[in-house]
Automatic annotation (TrEMBL):
<dbReference type="GO" id="GO:0008168">
    <property type="term" value="F:methyltransferase activity"/>
</dbReference>
<keyword id="KW-0808">Transferase</keyword>
<protein>
    <submittedName>
        <fullName>Putative methyltransferase NSUN7</fullName>
    </submittedName>
</protein>
<feature type="region of interest" description="Disordered">
    <location>
        <begin position="472"/>
        <end position="518"/>
    </location>
</feature>
<dbReference type="GO" id="GO:0032259">
    <property type="term" value="P:methylation"/>
</dbReference>
<keyword id="KW-0489">Methyltransferase</keyword>
<dbReference type="InterPro" id="IPR029063">
    <property type="entry name" value="SAM-dependent_MTases_sf"/>
</dbReference>
<dbReference type="InterPro" id="IPR042620">
    <property type="entry name" value="NSUN7"/>
</dbReference>
Length: 718
């Protein structure tokens, strides 16, 4: 079965918390004032009391941007900007105050809130805007009503484009359930986490048949390790508690946790060890969650994350605050490194999460808050029509996704990669995967075919040289190809006749069938295929497939996963002859090279030629000058006196001298031997000098018989 757990236990229900029906419980005057400060031009600096307040403000801004088409049409209908042209450059805050007025159905605010409204609106510099909108409230209400009647819209959201009609943000904001993960760098195990949560009044709900969580209860997730869902009595007070402020509990939407949860199990699934790389940082909390899962996995050596950009210092500080110590973050883009770069030499798996449209996530506010409050992302998510800028942005996203997949699969040591998006668009998901895998496999096949053609060319040249045929006599490549085709036709016809004459046995494939370029097959170690996501659920219920998770995952791996363990390395060393096994094994003969049949007679050296060779004359003067030079032994004895003539015989100065020519020759033999053969790879120069005669014998005995040895080494060792 495709999973990590052997037995099927039971079904996994989707748990949820109770939802608030009244939106006024999480949107108030302070929320509107903070949103007005963020939407100012330029934006004002805002400090939130807690994360819950931050989420309320950005959920309000999201809905304002979502309804901006309706709000703009209504303002233009009553010619609001012609009456107040000074507000034309402040559209975002006009939309905000109009949406706030629409939210209370154009009614007067409660009397006890009027003083607070004047104070907060004056501080946020939206008091004048609120007064002008209140002055034309009847005209605005009539404009909205006319639009709803014209388009038969039973609710205001029906006036929006289809992709913006979903009330997912409002539903997420009104949901009382909070999801997140326990920080393992502060709470080491599950027992200590249960005890810590119990101290704060949260009780573990162990009944898996319950679909709704009770207040002040929590439950561990069956798919994502360290992940829990809880229902606090007050979300605002919960975010102020020590659990969140001191980072024992990290709030995170579950859609951003499935990818890290699957990625953390793949090394065990493929029985691999090595480094892991993440290509982009879409959410720092999600990256920290993956690092926390790797904290207890011994198979992971290093965890690298790229694409931080200008936020590098901020992300590193965030990891330091959480206590994450097993991660290395870089500002550079993963796709900026060439294939020749050796930076990823020990990486065996890649978590590819390139930019995407984020159209599938149910709570985009979690993404915005995890990125520190990105208003540009909110504007992108709430676009109502496709503009030229939108088309350009989509093309850049698709280009980055394809380039990320290509660069990841082009690394020779990469064994698998997990691709993640949060999109519902097929062009970003399965279509992109199919196209990238097909493109990479076709490129690899072309390289193998090119290597096959080069091999055949070298074999033809070697055969021609062995037959003493000049290269020019072989003719042009087209002529050789024509001759080859003619020979193949002749051989095939003769083979057909032989097959017709012999019908009593099975036909065997001829050797010529493997000589064509079309017969080249992509090796399994170089071919990528799509693999089914392993079922990591404890109950083996395929929760990721069955439930709408707001996350697309695709696993790509090599058809034959290479495990770089000790057994594989020993096998490769034996194949390369480092353990003297390649010498004992028979050397395979080159395919297609036969015994040379030639009409050129070999040159035989006769006795006459041997007797009449030119002899080398000896220069007597050079011989005498060489004999008169000091030897290494005589130089060592210079300045050494007898021990009896010294007052301190133990302290006599003896300067050892070495023959530079001998040392240079020995060093050259050592370097060439180490470079060419791999013998004495761990041997130092001193030990090599002590066993020089043994080394030279090994060079003669092993290497000169194994393959043609360079001439300059033969001259040195002979």
């Amino acid at each position: 079965p495709n999973g990590l757990y052997p037995n099927l236990k039971k079904k996994c229900p989707q748990i949820r918390g109770k939802s608030l029906k009244d939106k006024s419980k999480f949107w108030n005057l302070k929320t509107i004032a903070l949103a007005a400060n963020l939407l100012a031009k330029p934006p004002k600096k805002v400090e939130f009391e807690n994360e819950h307040e931050m989420r309320k403000v950005y959920s309000l801004i999201y809905d304002v941007f979502r309804f901006k088409v309706v709000l703009s049409n209504s303002l233009n209908d009553i010619e609001f900007y012609k009456r107040f042209p000074e507000h034309k450059e402040d559209e975002n805050r006009i939309w905000l105050m109009f949406y706030e007025l629409l939210g209370r159905n154009f009614k007067q605010r409660y009397s006890e809130e009027i003083d607070l409204q004047y104070k907060l609106f004056r501080e946020s510099e939206v008091e004048e805007i609120a007064e002008h909108l209140w002055e034309f409230r009847k005209a605005l209400a009539a404009s909205i009503s006319r639009m709803r009647i014209k388009f038969n819209a039973l609710s205001l959201s029906k006036l929006l484009p289809i992709h913006l009609q979903n009330e997912k943000v409002a539903n997420a904001a009104s949901n009382t359930m909070v999801t997140g993960w326990i920080n393992p760098f502060l709470l080491r195990d599950k027992t200590s986490a249960d005890k810590f949560l119990l101290e704060y009044g949260y009780i573990l709900q162990e009944n898996d048949n319950e679909h709704v969580l009770d207040t002040n209860h929590y439950r561990w997730d069956n798919v994502c390790p360290l992940f829990i869902s809880c229902v606090p009595q007050d979300k605002g007070e919960f975010t102020k508690s020590k659990l969140v402020t001191q980072h024992y509990f990290i709030i995170q939407d579950k859609a951003f946790s499935y990818g890290p949860a699957v990625m953390s199990r793949l090394l065990e699934y493929f029985q691999l060890s090595g480094d892991i790389l993440q290509t982009h940082i879409s959410s720092p909390r999600s990256t920290a969650y993956l690092a926390s899962l790797f904290y207890s996995i011994n198979r992971v050596n290093n965890f690298y994350v790229y694409g931080a950009g200008i936020n590098l210092k901020e992300y590193r500080k965030f990891m330091e605050i959480l206590g994450v110590c097993n991660i290395r973050i870089f500002a550079e883009l993963f796709t900026s490194f060439p294939l020749e770069s050796k930076r990823f030499g020990y990486v065996v798996g890649i978590f590819a999460n390139p930019p995407n449209s984020f159209s599938a996530i149910s709570d985009p506010i979690d993404l915005i808050c995890s990125r520190g409050g990105d208003l540009s992302m909110l504007e992108v998510l709430t676009e109502s029509e496709i503009s030229d800028e939108g088309k350009r942005r989509v093309s850049l996203i698709l280009e980055e996704q394809l380039l990320t997949l290509q660069m990841a699969m082009s690394r020779p040591q990469i064994q698998f990669l997990l691709y993640q998006t949060h999109s519902i668009v097929s062009a970003e998901n399965q279509d992109m995967i199919d196209y990238a895998v097909r493109l990479v496999n076709e490129t690899s096949l072309r390289k193998h075919q090119s290597a096959f053609r080069e091999k055949k060319r070298l074999e033809a040249l070697a055969e021609a040289e062995a037959a003493n045929i000049p290269a020019a006599a072989m003719g042009s490549p087209r002529k050789r190809a024509a001759n080859t085709q003619a020979d193949e036709k002749g051989k095939s016809s003769s083979a057909t006749e032989a097959g017709a004459a012999r019908t009593d046995g099975p036909a065997e494939p001829t050797a010529d069938a493997d000589d064509s370029e079309e017969s080249v097959v992509l090796p399994e170690a170089d071919e990528f295929i799509c693999e089914t996501i392993p079922d990591i659920c404890i109950n083996r219920d395929n929760c990721i497939k069955q439930h709408s998770i707001g996350c697309y995952l695709s696993l790509i791996k090599r058809k034959k996963v290479t495990q770089l363990n000790a057994k594989y390395l020993i096998k490769m060393a034996e194949a390369r002859g480092l353990f003297d096994t390649a010498e004992k094994s028979p050397v395979p003969k080159a395919k297609g090279i036969k015994a040379q049949d030639t009409n050129v007679e070999p040159v035989i050296e006769t006795e006459y030629l041997n007797n009449h060779r030119e002899t080398k004359h000896i220069n007597v003067d050079q011989l005498i000058s060489r004999l008169m030079k000091d030897t290494n032994s005589s130089l060592n004895r210079i300045g050494v006196s007898k021990a009896s003539n010294l007052n301190h015989p133990v302290k006599f100065k003896f300067k050892r001298r070495e023959c530079t020519r001998y040392k240079a020759t020995l060093l050259k033999i050592y370097q060439l031997t180490k470079q060419e053969t791999g013998v004495f790879r761990r041997c130092s120069l001193d030990s090599f000098e002590e066993t020089c005669s043994v080394a030279i014998c090994c060079v003669k005995r092993k290497n000169l018989r194994k393959y043609p040895y360079p001439l300059h080494i033969q001259n040195l060792v002979m």
